[in-house]
Specification:
The chain has 294 residues and is of the alpha+beta class. The protein is built from 6 helices and 15 strands. Strands 1, 9, 10, 11, 12, 13, 14 and 15 form an 8-stranded mixed beta sheet that branches.
């Protein structure tokens, strides 16, 4: 490989979608899908509605093709908290995961959100990202779904838990974001810093999906390199370029997800440290969240 023939470019939406797809395909070569009917993940929403049909709370779940459930969003109207709506919503989402055959559930929550609530509902801590965002902490929590876990006895309900639409899921997501921003005001909108390497013919050979969040929190979602270009420093160049751009945008540290035992050493060699670790995700392997100060 002559690296002089490669060019670093901004990624268009179609490029980023391709990078994500190729990264997932590579992961599935190492650990095959448990659910063949799910390309990568499949989301759904449960909502709590009162007698008038008003949405008073909601929970969005994502089912990963590896048989894992992710709780993406949980929100309850402030006036209706303390009535076990949240517990009934998360139970409804977990029940869907079990019915589909998921063996594990995980989620992330900030210190201004609901760690004690999740722990009351059987979740355990698997890692903490300190000072993320600045002055706060981000917690990773998990719960096995394939073993018997005593459930909390919830109060009688005067509302209905039902399936939500995509629009209602967006409403729930917006309401949770609105709540979080009252606790931690945002500094700016999300800044995309997706980049790609292309060869002399314009063919995609490597790419990164990453950016700086509204609290100056820099994230790496996916990084991928074509097989013939691996172990030649291309991924490290992408990382270094992103880190430089993120720092220029105000980020003081960067966190990478989609890190597993088969690509952990790449991040460690580039100066990242492990801040969260969850065993048996996917089965027989380990999931990590890693961080690097800028």
């Amino acid at each position: 490989m002559d690296k002089k023939e490669l060019r670093l470019r901004r990624s268009a939406r179609k490029d980023s979608m391709q990078i994500e797809k190729l990264a997932h395909e590579y992961n599935f070569q190492i650990v095959p899908r448990y659910f063949e009917n799910i390309e990568y993940d499949e989301d759904f929403t449960k909502i709590a509605v009162d007698k008038e049909g008003n949405v008073r709370g909601g929970c969005i779940g994502e089912i990963y093709a590896w048989g894992i459930l992710y709780v993406d969003t949980l929100w309850v109207d402030e006036k209706y908290r303390g009535k076990d709506i949240g517990s009934n919503l998360i139970k409804a989402v977990e029940d869907v995961g079990r019915e589909k055959g998921c063996y594990l559930c995980f989620l992330g929550t900030l210190d201004v959100q609901a760690r004690p609530f999740y722990e009351k509902n059987g979740y355990k801590l698997f890692g903490t990202i300190k000072n993320w965002p600045e002055g706060h902490e981000d917690y990773g929590l998990y719960k096995p779904l394939d073993v018997e876990v005593p459930s909390r006895e919830c109060k009688p309900i005067d509302y209905e838990i039902k399936d939500g639409t995509e629009e209602q899921g967006e409403y729930v997501d917006d309401k949770l974001e609105e709540y979080c921003l009252t606790k931690i005001p945002k500094k700016h909108d999300y800044i995309k810093l997706n980049r790609k390497f292309v060869d002399k013919d314009g063919k995609l050979v490597a790419g990164i999906m990453a950016g700086v969040g509204e609290w100056d929190t820099a994230w790496i979602w996916v990084i991928w390199t074509e097989e013939e270009y691996r172990n030649k420093g291309l991924g490290s160049e992408l990382l270094a370029h992103f880190e430089k751009q993120a720092k220029a945008k105000g980020a003081t540290s960067v966190v990478a997800e989609e890190v597993f035992d088969w690509n952990l050493n790449f991040f460690l060699k580039n100066g990242y440290e492990i801040v969260q670790k969850l065993d048996n995700f996917p089965k027989g392997h380990t999931f990590y969240v890693v961080r690097k100060d800028l």
